Amino acid sequence: MTSLAAFALASLVLVAVPGPNLIYIVTRSVQDGRRAGIVSALGVETGTLLHVIAAVCGLAALVADHPLALIVLRYAGAGYLAYLGVRTLHRDPPPAVGTERPPQRRLLRLYGDAILVNLLNPKVVLFFLAFLPQFLPTGLPPSESRARMLVLGMVFLSIALALDLCYALIGAALTRRLRGTPRRARRLPYLTGGIYLGLAALVFI
After folding, report:
1. Can you give the pLDDT at residue 42?
2. Which domain holds residue 74?
3. Looking at residue 64, what is its pLDDT?
4. 49, 46, 171, 196: which is closest to 112 by C-alpha?
5. Which residues does the chain have with pLDDT short of 50?
6. Which of 3, 126, 161, 202 is the most exposed place for a label (fewest CB within 10 A)?
7. Can you give the pLDDT at residue 183?
8. For residue 38, which of 181, 191, 161 has the smallest C-alpha distance?
9. What phi and psi values does residue 58 have, to the nearest 5 degrees?
10. Which of 195, 189, 196 is nearest to 88 (CA)?
């Protein structure tokens, strides 16, 4: 129980630290409304579920044995953030506050984008490659090791989903301040796109 509590606290800190996942959820909620933020949070944590499955199946360890794969994932994540930034810059300004209702097709696209943002997020990849295994006792049979990894992964997923939904609601609360006037609404795509491009550039610094 002590180890589980320590893992939960470490997971809470990791999720709370700003990164691509958090920024994606908040910006989507600000730009497209609360529904879009919630859908984005669900997409991000779908990506986390895929990370958990990969770790339990041993795929994470396979990637860890090939440093080139980590480099490819890192730059692929930066490239995808840059793509989102350019796409956002070319979008029309969001509608007036309170009138946004993203169509079903757009919500599905935001959900898919969120999954990819998480899957290509170096912070989450390293968490499952290097950090989570430290909470597993050595010498366990493979089946028990996988079972414990699954439990830890679901603990992390639960904490991350709760916090991400909070971020979506916070982004929605900021909407009126950031989109309260047509002038602010016109500037918002440039702010959001610039944030994505800035995150992508950090990879190369």
Report:
1. 96
2. 2-8+19-202
3. 64
4. 46
5. 98-99
6. 202
7. 64
8. 161
9. 90, 0
10. 189
Q: How many CB atoms lie under 10 A from the CB of residue 54? A: 19
Is 1:152 a contact under the CB 8 Å cutoff? Answer: no
pTM, two decimals, is 0.81
**What is residue 85's predicted lDDT score, i.e. its pLDDT?**
83
Angle at 44 between CA 110 and CA 179, to 5 degrees: 50
Give the pLDDT of residue 50. Answer: 93
Structural domain includes residue 13: no
Q: What is the pLDDT of residue 31?
A: 82
> 111 in a domain, yes or no?
yes
Helix 67-89 vs helix 104-119: crossing angle, to nearest 10: 150
Print the SS3 string covering the chain.
CHHHHHHHHHHHHHHHCCCHHHHHHHHHHHHHCHHHHHHHHHHHHHHHHHHHHHHHCCHHHHHHCCHHHHHHHHHHHHHHHHHHHHHHHCCCCCCCCCCCCCCHHHHHHHHHHHHHHHHCCHHHHHHHHHHHHHHCCCCCCHHHHHHHHHHHHHHHHHHHHHHHHHHHHHHHHHHHHHHCCHHHHHHHHHHHHHHHHHHHHHCCC
